[in-house]
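Example 261.
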Amino acid sequence: VDKREYLMVERRGANDCVAVITLNRPKALNALCDPLMEELARTLDEVESDDKVAAIVITGSEKAFAAGADIKQMQDLKFTKCYSGNFLSGWDRVSRCKRPVIAAVNGYALGGGCELAMMADIIIAGENAKFGQPEINLGTIPGAGGTQRLPRAIGKSRAMQLCLTGDLIDAKQACDWGLVSSVHPPEKLLDEAVSIGEKIATKSKLIVQMCKEAINKSYDASLTEGLHLEKRLFHSTFATNDRKEGMDAFVEKRKPNFTDS
Ligand code: CAA
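Predicted structure in complex with acetoacetyl-coenzyme A:
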Protein backbone atom coordinates (compact mmCIF):
# COMPACT_ATOMS: atom_id res chain seq x y z
CA VAL A 1 0.00 0.00 0.00
CA ASP A 2 1.34 3.36 -1.07
CA LYS A 3 0.42 5.82 1.71
CA ARG A 4 0.32 9.44 0.69
CA GLU A 5 -0.69 12.52 2.61
CA TYR A 6 -4.47 12.28 2.27
CA LEU A 7 -4.99 8.94 0.56
CA MET A 8 -3.64 5.45 0.02
CA VAL A 9 -3.22 3.66 -3.30
CA GLU A 10 -2.97 -0.04 -3.90
CA ARG A 11 -3.43 -2.52 -6.73
CA ARG A 12 -5.95 -5.28 -6.23
CA GLY A 13 -7.50 -8.04 -8.30
CA ALA A 14 -6.08 -10.47 -10.84
CA ASN A 15 -2.92 -9.04 -12.48
CA ASP A 16 -3.29 -5.90 -10.34
CA CYS A 17 -6.00 -4.70 -12.69
CA VAL A 18 -7.91 -2.60 -10.15
CA ALA A 19 -6.45 0.54 -8.57
CA VAL A 20 -7.98 1.16 -5.15
CA ILE A 21 -7.75 4.71 -3.85
CA THR A 22 -8.69 5.04 -0.19
CA LEU A 23 -9.36 8.56 1.08
CA ASN A 24 -7.48 8.85 4.33
CA ARG A 25 -8.05 11.98 6.36
CA PRO A 26 -9.64 10.31 9.38
CA LYS A 27 -9.49 13.30 11.73
CA ALA A 28 -11.88 15.25 9.52
CA LEU A 29 -14.01 12.31 8.31
CA ASN A 30 -12.32 12.67 4.91
CA ALA A 31 -13.50 16.26 4.45
CA LEU A 32 -12.38 17.19 0.96
CA CYS A 33 -9.90 20.03 1.35
CA ASP A 34 -8.12 21.40 -1.72
CA PRO A 35 -4.85 19.52 -1.14
CA LEU A 36 -6.79 16.24 -0.86
CA MET A 37 -8.61 16.84 -4.15
CA GLU A 38 -5.35 17.88 -5.81
CA GLU A 39 -3.70 14.68 -4.56
CA LEU A 40 -6.66 12.67 -5.83
CA ALA A 41 -6.40 14.30 -9.28
CA ARG A 42 -2.65 13.59 -9.46
CA THR A 43 -3.22 10.01 -8.35
CA LEU A 44 -5.88 9.51 -11.03
CA ASP A 45 -3.44 10.83 -13.68
CA GLU A 46 -0.93 8.31 -12.46
CA VAL A 47 -3.13 5.22 -12.25
CA GLU A 48 -4.74 5.99 -15.59
CA SER A 49 -1.39 6.05 -17.31
CA ASP A 50 -0.73 2.50 -16.07
CA ASP A 51 -1.88 0.10 -18.80
CA LYS A 52 -2.49 -2.65 -16.28
CA VAL A 53 -5.25 -0.65 -14.59
CA ALA A 54 -8.67 -1.47 -16.03
CA ALA A 55 -10.86 0.06 -13.31
CA ILE A 56 -10.51 2.40 -10.37
CA VAL A 57 -12.19 2.09 -6.99
CA ILE A 58 -12.53 5.11 -4.73
CA THR A 59 -13.42 4.39 -1.13
CA GLY A 60 -13.12 5.90 2.35
CA SER A 61 -13.28 4.51 5.86
CA GLU A 62 -16.09 2.53 7.51
CA LYS A 63 -17.22 5.73 9.22
CA ALA A 64 -17.01 8.12 6.29
CA PHE A 65 -16.58 8.00 2.56
CA ALA A 66 -16.30 11.79 2.79
CA ALA A 67 -18.19 14.27 5.00
CA GLY A 68 -18.17 16.96 2.33
CA ALA A 69 -16.08 19.90 1.28
CA ASP A 70 -13.91 21.20 4.11
CA ILE A 71 -16.13 23.57 6.10
CA LYS A 72 -13.16 24.92 8.08
CA GLN A 73 -11.41 25.81 4.84
CA MET A 74 -14.55 27.53 3.54
CA GLN A 75 -15.50 29.30 6.78
CA ASP A 76 -13.76 32.60 5.97
CA LEU A 77 -13.84 32.33 2.21
CA LYS A 78 -15.21 35.36 0.36
CA PHE A 79 -17.11 35.55 -2.90
CA THR A 80 -14.27 37.37 -4.69
CA LYS A 81 -11.83 34.55 -4.04
CA CYS A 82 -14.38 31.85 -4.78
CA TYR A 83 -15.28 33.39 -8.09
CA SER A 84 -11.88 34.55 -9.29
CA GLY A 85 -10.25 31.26 -8.31
CA ASN A 86 -13.21 29.24 -9.64
CA PHE A 87 -13.45 27.35 -6.33
CA LEU A 88 -14.12 23.58 -6.67
CA SER A 89 -13.61 23.65 -10.44
CA GLY A 90 -10.80 21.10 -10.28
CA TRP A 91 -13.04 18.47 -8.68
CA ASP A 92 -14.45 17.26 -11.97
CA ARG A 93 -11.21 15.38 -12.71
CA VAL A 94 -12.97 12.33 -11.27
CA SER A 95 -15.79 12.57 -13.81
CA ARG A 96 -13.27 12.75 -16.65
CA CYS A 97 -11.57 9.41 -16.00
CA LYS A 98 -11.26 7.25 -19.07
CA ARG A 99 -11.32 4.09 -16.97
CA PRO A 100 -14.51 3.13 -15.11
CA VAL A 101 -14.62 4.47 -11.56
CA ILE A 102 -16.49 2.61 -8.82
CA ALA A 103 -17.29 4.47 -5.61
CA ALA A 104 -17.51 2.10 -2.64
CA VAL A 105 -19.34 4.09 0.03
CA ASN A 106 -19.34 3.16 3.70
CA GLY A 107 -20.54 5.68 6.27
CA TYR A 108 -21.15 9.33 5.45
CA ALA A 109 -21.22 10.58 1.87
CA LEU A 110 -22.43 14.11 2.48
CA GLY A 111 -22.31 17.27 0.43
CA GLY A 112 -19.13 17.14 -1.64
CA GLY A 113 -18.75 13.51 -0.54
CA CYS A 114 -22.05 12.57 -2.15
CA GLU A 115 -21.10 14.65 -5.18
CA LEU A 116 -17.75 12.88 -5.43
CA ALA A 117 -19.53 9.52 -5.34
CA MET A 118 -21.88 10.70 -8.07
CA MET A 119 -18.90 11.59 -10.29
CA ALA A 120 -18.07 7.88 -10.29
CA ASP A 121 -19.62 5.55 -12.88
CA ILE A 122 -20.96 3.02 -10.41
CA ILE A 123 -21.80 3.53 -6.73
CA ILE A 124 -22.14 0.61 -4.36
CA ALA A 125 -22.83 1.09 -0.67
CA GLY A 126 -22.27 -0.53 2.68
CA GLU A 127 -25.35 -1.11 4.84
CA ASN A 128 -24.15 1.73 7.09
CA ALA A 129 -23.89 4.33 4.30
CA LYS A 130 -25.65 7.68 4.61
CA PHE A 131 -26.09 10.04 1.69
CA GLY A 132 -27.21 13.65 1.69
CA GLN A 133 -26.68 17.19 0.50
CA PRO A 134 -26.83 19.12 3.79
CA GLU A 135 -25.31 22.34 2.40
CA ILE A 136 -28.62 24.12 3.01
CA ASN A 137 -27.94 23.81 6.77
CA LEU A 138 -24.74 25.79 6.24
CA GLY A 139 -26.44 28.53 4.27
CA THR A 140 -25.07 27.36 0.94
CA ILE A 141 -25.98 24.96 -1.87
CA PRO A 142 -24.25 21.95 -3.44
CA GLY A 143 -21.37 23.24 -5.55
CA ALA A 144 -19.78 20.15 -7.05
CA GLY A 145 -22.59 18.77 -9.16
CA GLY A 146 -25.23 17.88 -6.54
CA THR A 147 -28.03 19.99 -7.99
CA GLN A 148 -27.45 18.46 -11.43
CA ARG A 149 -26.39 14.86 -10.87
CA LEU A 150 -28.75 14.07 -7.98
CA PRO A 151 -32.01 14.84 -9.86
CA ARG A 152 -30.71 12.84 -12.82
CA ALA A 153 -30.03 9.92 -10.47
CA ILE A 154 -33.14 9.95 -8.26
CA GLY A 155 -35.60 12.37 -9.89
CA LYS A 156 -36.53 15.98 -9.21
CA SER A 157 -38.90 15.59 -6.28
CA ARG A 158 -36.54 13.44 -4.21
CA ALA A 159 -33.52 15.58 -5.09
CA MET A 160 -35.42 18.74 -4.13
CA GLN A 161 -36.45 17.20 -0.85
CA LEU A 162 -32.91 16.12 0.04
CA CYS A 163 -31.29 19.41 -0.96
CA LEU A 164 -33.97 21.65 0.60
CA THR A 165 -34.33 19.80 3.91
CA GLY A 166 -30.73 18.61 4.23
CA ASP A 167 -32.10 15.21 5.31
CA LEU A 168 -29.90 12.14 4.94
CA ILE A 169 -30.96 8.83 3.41
CA ASP A 170 -29.62 5.41 4.29
CA ALA A 171 -28.16 2.82 1.95
CA LYS A 172 -31.44 0.98 1.42
CA GLN A 173 -33.26 4.16 0.48
CA ALA A 174 -30.39 5.15 -1.83
CA CYS A 175 -30.63 1.75 -3.49
CA ASP A 176 -34.44 1.88 -3.81
CA TRP A 177 -34.10 5.31 -5.40
CA GLY A 178 -31.42 4.21 -7.85
CA LEU A 179 -28.55 6.29 -6.50
CA VAL A 180 -26.54 3.15 -5.76
CA SER A 181 -26.58 -0.19 -7.55
CA SER A 182 -26.30 -2.52 -4.58
CA VAL A 183 -25.86 -2.70 -0.81
CA HIS A 184 -23.42 -4.97 1.04
CA PRO A 185 -22.15 -5.67 4.54
CA PRO A 186 -19.59 -2.91 5.21
CA GLU A 187 -16.64 -5.29 5.56
CA LYS A 188 -17.42 -6.97 2.22
CA LEU A 189 -17.93 -3.74 0.26
CA LEU A 190 -14.38 -3.26 -0.99
CA ASP A 191 -14.08 -6.87 -2.18
CA GLU A 192 -17.34 -6.45 -4.06
CA ALA A 193 -16.06 -3.25 -5.72
CA VAL A 194 -12.81 -4.97 -6.68
CA SER A 195 -14.70 -7.92 -8.13
CA ILE A 196 -16.80 -5.58 -10.30
CA GLY A 197 -13.52 -3.99 -11.44
CA GLU A 198 -12.01 -7.42 -12.15
CA LYS A 199 -15.01 -8.37 -14.25
CA ILE A 200 -14.67 -5.17 -16.28
CA ALA A 201 -10.96 -5.95 -16.66
CA THR A 202 -11.79 -9.10 -18.63
CA LYS A 203 -13.30 -6.93 -21.39
CA SER A 204 -11.55 -4.80 -23.98
CA LYS A 205 -10.36 -1.54 -22.41
CA LEU A 206 -10.99 0.22 -25.68
CA ILE A 207 -14.59 -0.93 -25.96
CA VAL A 208 -15.22 -0.28 -22.25
CA GLN A 209 -14.07 3.29 -22.79
CA MET A 210 -16.45 3.72 -25.72
CA CYS A 211 -19.37 2.26 -23.77
CA LYS A 212 -18.66 4.56 -20.83
CA GLU A 213 -18.47 7.58 -23.13
CA ALA A 214 -21.84 6.72 -24.69
CA ILE A 215 -23.60 6.24 -21.33
CA ASN A 216 -22.11 9.45 -19.94
CA LYS A 217 -23.46 11.32 -22.93
CA SER A 218 -26.98 10.44 -21.79
CA TYR A 219 -26.41 12.78 -18.86
CA ASP A 220 -25.85 15.94 -20.81
CA ALA A 221 -27.28 15.57 -24.26
CA SER A 222 -30.68 15.45 -25.89
CA LEU A 223 -31.92 11.96 -26.80
CA THR A 224 -31.26 12.63 -30.49
CA GLU A 225 -27.71 13.77 -29.83
CA GLY A 226 -27.07 10.88 -27.44
CA LEU A 227 -28.42 8.31 -29.86
CA HIS A 228 -26.27 9.79 -32.60
CA LEU A 229 -23.09 9.50 -30.53
CA GLU A 230 -24.05 5.97 -29.50
CA LYS A 231 -24.53 4.95 -33.11
CA ARG A 232 -21.17 6.43 -34.16
CA LEU A 233 -19.33 4.77 -31.29
CA PHE A 234 -21.10 1.49 -32.06
CA HIS A 235 -19.96 1.83 -35.68
CA SER A 236 -16.46 2.62 -34.40
CA THR A 237 -16.25 -0.70 -32.56
CA PHE A 238 -16.21 -2.26 -36.04
CA ALA A 239 -12.87 -0.56 -36.65
CA THR A 240 -11.30 -2.46 -33.74
CA ASN A 241 -9.64 -5.87 -33.49
CA ASP A 242 -11.48 -6.52 -30.26
CA ARG A 243 -14.91 -6.36 -31.90
CA LYS A 244 -13.81 -8.96 -34.45
CA GLU A 245 -12.20 -11.10 -31.76
CA GLY A 246 -15.29 -10.92 -29.52
CA MET A 247 -17.61 -12.11 -32.27
CA ASP A 248 -15.17 -14.73 -33.60
CA ALA A 249 -14.80 -16.13 -30.10
CA PHE A 250 -18.57 -16.37 -29.67
CA VAL A 251 -19.02 -18.22 -32.94
CA GLU A 252 -16.04 -20.51 -32.22
CA LYS A 253 -17.40 -21.18 -28.69
CA ARG A 254 -14.25 -20.00 -26.91
CA LYS A 255 -13.24 -17.15 -24.62
CA PRO A 256 -12.22 -13.94 -26.37
CA ASN A 257 -8.62 -12.81 -26.15
CA PHE A 258 -8.91 -9.03 -26.15
CA THR A 259 -5.83 -6.95 -26.96
CA ASP A 260 -7.25 -3.48 -26.31
CA SER A 261 -6.81 -2.64 -29.95
N1 CAA B 1 -15.40 19.86 6.96
C1 CAA B 1 -14.47 20.01 7.89
N2 CAA B 1 -14.39 19.24 8.98
C2 CAA B 1 -15.33 18.28 9.13
C3 CAA B 1 -16.34 18.07 8.19
C4 CAA B 1 -16.35 18.91 7.04
N3 CAA B 1 -17.26 18.76 6.07
N4 CAA B 1 -17.12 17.06 8.60
C5 CAA B 1 -16.60 16.64 9.77
N5 CAA B 1 -15.52 17.37 10.09
C6 CAA B 1 -14.67 17.26 11.28
C7 CAA B 1 -15.38 17.82 12.50
O1 CAA B 1 -15.22 19.22 12.55
C8 CAA B 1 -14.65 17.11 13.61
O2 CAA B 1 -13.40 17.74 13.80
P1 CAA B 1 -12.89 18.10 15.30
O3 CAA B 1 -12.66 16.75 15.91
O4 CAA B 1 -11.66 18.86 15.05
O5 CAA B 1 -13.99 18.84 15.96
C9 CAA B 1 -14.35 15.74 13.00
O6 CAA B 1 -14.46 15.91 11.59
C10 CAA B 1 -15.36 14.68 13.42
O7 CAA B 1 -16.67 15.16 13.11
P2 CAA B 1 -17.87 15.17 14.17
O8 CAA B 1 -17.34 15.34 15.54
O9 CAA B 1 -18.87 16.16 13.69
O10 CAA B 1 -18.40 13.68 13.99
P3 CAA B 1 -19.89 13.14 14.26
O11 CAA B 1 -19.78 11.66 14.16
O12 CAA B 1 -20.45 13.75 15.48
O13 CAA B 1 -20.78 13.69 13.02
C11 CAA B 1 -21.24 14.18 10.69
C12 CAA B 1 -20.53 13.24 11.71
C13 CAA B 1 -22.74 14.05 10.83
C14 CAA B 1 -20.79 13.73 9.31
C15 CAA B 1 -20.81 15.64 10.96
O14 CAA B 1 -19.39 15.69 11.02
C16 CAA B 1 -21.25 16.61 9.90
O15 CAA B 1 -22.41 17.00 9.86
N6 CAA B 1 -20.31 17.07 9.01
C17 CAA B 1 -20.58 18.06 8.01
C18 CAA B 1 -21.39 17.51 6.86
C19 CAA B 1 -21.69 18.61 5.87
O16 CAA B 1 -22.35 19.58 6.16
N7 CAA B 1 -21.18 18.44 4.63
C20 CAA B 1 -21.38 19.40 3.58
C21 CAA B 1 -20.20 20.30 3.48
S1 CAA B 1 -20.45 21.62 2.33
C22 CAA B 1 -20.11 21.02 0.83
O17 CAA B 1 -19.78 19.88 0.68
C23 CAA B 1 -20.19 21.98 -0.33
C24 CAA B 1 -20.17 21.33 -1.69
O18 CAA B 1 -21.20 21.16 -2.32
C25 CAA B 1 -18.94 20.92 -2.33
